[in-house]
Write a structure and sequence with these properties.
202 residues; alpha+beta; Aminopeptidase; 10-stranded mixed beta sheet; 10 strands; globular
Length: 202
Amino acid sequence: MTKTAYGFETLDVDPDSLDATFTTRNGLLIYCRLLQPVDTPLLIDLFSRLSPESRRRRFNVPLEHIDASRIEEEAQRLAAVDNSTVGGAILAFAQQPDGKELIGVARLGRFPSEPASPEAEAALVVRDDFQGQGVGSALLALLALLARRMNVLTLVASVQADNEALFVLLRNLHLPLQRHTTHGETSISLTVADIPTPKNRA
């Protein structure tokens, strides 16, 4: 079993709510649920815990010394999803001594002017200290379930051409995808139907 595919193998999901659990490669139980607008503070906290490199990977630009008001404004925008038409997202939480902490987010979004488009842009970020444990693959599986619910057929993303961790994840999952690189940026297109479906919670 490959390292990055681990999340798929341990994922257990409620098909109605998309609440889910899975076990990381090192044995930690992770909880997942849909993002809600009230989760803005969680997104801000996660951003504060990302390394500069992870921030760059997620947003495609360097993000250092950002004003707190701008961070809050962007977090509010990202949390304003309906998980139905224009945008949706899945959150992953790890149980820590002080409670559950947000460690990862997978999201998809259509242009507001095209709420019925079969194509949506996707993004994925995992906190640095949880990378390589199967969190990304589990979130991708849940994002595919959300995409199917929203009638999204294709996920697209623009990432840095040197984002080898993402490409390794996709290769290890044997997912067919279209990939085009120009000027240091790679465009990816992935058919939702090609992403494996996790087992339903009993």
